[in-house]
Amino acid sequence: MKTRVGIMGYGNLGRGVEAAIKQNPDMELVGVFTRRDPAAVTIQTEGVGVYKLDDCKTMQDDIDVMILCGGSAADLPWMSPEYAHFFNTVESFDTHADIPWHVDNVNASDIANDKTSIVSCGWDPGLFSVARVMTGAILPAGKAYTFWGKGVSQGHSDAVRQIPGVKDARQYTLPVQDVMDAIRGGAMPELTAGQMHTREVFVVCDDDVTEDDKADIVEDIKTMPAYFEDYNTTVHFITEEEMQRDHSGLPHGGFVIRSGGVGPDGKDKAVVEFSLNLDSNPEFTGSVLVACARACHRMNQEGSYGCKTMLDVPPAYYSPMSRDELLEKMM
Amino acid sequence: MKTRVGIMGYGNLGRGVEAAIKQNPDMELVGVFTRRDPAAVTIQTEGVGVYKLDDCKTMQDDIDVMILCGGSAADLPWMSPEYAHFFNTVESFDTHADIPWHVDNVNASDIANDKTSIVSCGWDPGLFSVARVMTGAILPAGKAYTFWGKGVSQGHSDAVRQIPGVKDARQYTLPVQDVMDAIRGGAMPELTAGQMHTREVFVVCDDDVTEDDKADIVEDIKTMPAYFEDYNTTVHFITEEEMQRDHSGLPHGGFVIRSGGVGPDGKDKAVVEFSLNLDSNPEFTGSVLVACARACHRMNQEGSYGCKTMLDVPPAYYSPMSRDELLEKMM
């Protein structure tokens, strides 16, 4: 019996989820739900329909888990509590500070309807949260560091695009290698995000931009509060063709490194590291969401209702393997 | 209310567990249980008694979780099913092929007595199993590789010590760097353990060993079936003083790397890596066991009885933090 999945929202992440479902023979795509005109949306899976968002409400018996592929700023704060009334849901809400509030909202819908949701799935929050919690419990006399990159930050790219004279922009976040190596060696410094990362920006200018204007653009970027002012930032001006050729992907990645002391007086070092290197951030996140959908369906079938995060999910629940197979092949 | 822990077996691992308990304010050591004469065993925790093994059976009301620190070959196969009649237990059984059989044995004791056990805890099996299962579920179109080292293999060191003329020996397992880098780059070759690792052996000879004898020892090591014959092995002869000075620790570590394809036709690469670098293998394993003891106690309090592995444990259960704290600080 396959897990029957719906996808709500068909942008980069929704397409990543669709591709991941194809890789999992125990999962089946049942429908894609969109705010656009369904007739104008072409999907990659033959024989599967595209519907308006609220058409899903008539399809509750056909869908085991709805994967919500909206954005964290404008979509998921209302979408997740709303559709958790009707479906088990999985999503990737990633505004870290608002997660407690979001979990409460979604939980209320779940509990009222015997549904299960797993929110804030993906890699950070998600896999990185799991790594931080497990390594934190194992090495209490230690310190964890999260590095992001090398990868594209869409929020920072968008912020640069707002500057007058900028036609297009791509921002990469990079971890500082020396700092990372020191931590791997057991150092436990106090660090700001700006000391752990640098930023690199590629900019395409409007046609009428002068050299003086470019100097202003560099200044505007480097001094932008919150986004750039606390970071060592490098700006490159490139052509539209170069942008298209060299910067059209959405790579990302990162590292969670926890270093701590074990043994008598914590005198012996232990360093645990979890890292990702991704050609495509949304496609990988889609793959995580599909594994979470499998877990969500199982937890619901077992009567474990309410809003969860990946911190609440036993690893075995993500896997298509039986318990016997896992013990035999994966331990 | 602290989790009250007993330690059964007081070798390197038992001492590692004791040190880890001291680092966790919510855990308390209640007693150490030994097959030796308790009067001859000195422990590091003031005010805690040392007892004969079966004295524990009169202390069931005082101990929430018994951590079994015996060996996988001779101790845990009988010790774990025996003491799971009386206690929630946590241990580090690491004979991979026998894990399904061992889980069944321990489970029978647990279920008959409303107890919970978590077996095969540590890093491999344990954390590495979790990494293999989670990354396998997320990247089904991929391949996982487990590398061990650089670290001391006690089994291989013992095997060399059996060779006539060898007074002492230490064997290090090392991952092959080039192979690891190729996999990090997305390659998915078929590899044997011997292609992924080299072995380095340090030998102290008996006083009467000649140069010819040394050549025989090298030959005996390099051709030893199962242990060395399939590996590129280097042998160094050193003095007793050098052994003492440079090789008295028990460092270890390793890497689980899964590389896979995501997106349409799996054309985009994703590489996930989990790694450890440990000054002391038994002390780190002891720290994992203590986090597992916390999880074991909780699962038992919730009525989740039977024999589990780390694949069955939600990450939050390892942590001393409340759910609210985890959502606020760790996601």
From TrEMBL, chains A, B:
Matching SUPFAM superfamilies: Glyceraldehyde-3-phosphate dehydrogenase-like, C-terminal domain, NAD(P)-binding Rossmann-fold domains
Annotated positions binding substrate: W148, T173, R199, H252, N281
Catalytic activity field: meso-2,6-diaminopimelate + NADP(+) + H2O = (S)-2-amino-6-oxoheptanedioate + NH4(+) + NADPH + H(+)
EC number in record: 1.4.1.16
Keyword Nucleotide-binding among UniProt keywords: yes
Example of a GO MF term: nucleotide binding
Segments forming domain Meso-diaminopimelate D-dehydrogenase C-terminal: 122-280
One GO biological process term: lysine biosynthetic process via diaminopimelate
Pathway linked to the protein: Amino-acid biosynthesis; L-lysine biosynthesis via DAP pathway; DL-2,6-diaminopimelate from (S)-tetrahydrodipicolinate: step 1/1
Binding site for NADP(+): Y10, G11, N12, L13, T34, R35, R36, C69, G70, G71, S72, S92, F93, D94
Keyword NADP: yes
Keywords in alphabetical order: Amino-acid biosynthesis, Diaminopimelate biosynthesis, Lysine biosynthesis, NADP, Nucleotide-binding, Oxidoreductase
Subunit structure: Homodimer.
Family statement: Belongs to the diaminopimelate dehydrogenase family.
Protein name as catalogued: Meso-diaminopimelate D-dehydrogenase
Organism: Pseudoramibacter porci
